[in-house]
Amino acid sequence: MMAKHFTIAIFCVSCLALVGCADNSPDGLMKQQIGLMNELSTVFETIKDVPSAEAAAPKIQAIGQRKKALDLKFGELKLSPEEQGKLTERHRAGVIAAGERLFKSRPKNAQILRNEKFSKAFESAR
Q1: Cα(28)–Cα(16) distance, rounded to whole angstroms?
Q2: Side-chain-facing half-sphere of 100: CA atoms under 13 Å
Q3: Is 121:64 a contact under the CB 8 Å cutoff?
Q4: DSSP 3-state helix, strand, coil percentages of the chain (rounded to 5)?
């Protein structure tokens, strides 16, 4: 009985460890990039006024940090222009859909865009 519980515990810990492991293949990185775009859209969709923009700023900055790390991983791949083109083509639909959502969800209110806390966070996510 004890061995059964131990085996189940090891299995659960292994699964949790794997959840944190990202796919660093070109396709995996592209999927992560699309995921970040969608995550940023989700945050933008919560912004209705200056206070909600300021509250969203730390989330936006965190996404920006993850984007920078992802950009570095992409750079380390050293893909040829041909490989980059094929990768882009394979993920075209996802990139377009995420880009359109991001464009529609971004704040347009001038007060929000001029807010220092929000604008710094927004710049970090570019």
Answers
A1: 19
A2: 5
A3: yes
A4: 80, 0, 20
Give the predicted TM-score (pTM) of the model.
0.78
- Helices 116-124/50-77 angle, 10° precision: 20
In angstroms, the CA 49 to CA 47 distance is: 6
CB 77 within 8 A of CB 26: yes
- The CA-based angle 111-116-114, given to 5 degrees, is 25
- pLDDT 10s digit of each residue in the chain, 126 long? 444 433 343 444 333 333 345 688 999 999 999 999 999 999 999 999 999 999 999 999 999 999 999 999 989 999 999 999 999 999 999 999 999 999 999 999 999 989 999 999 989 888
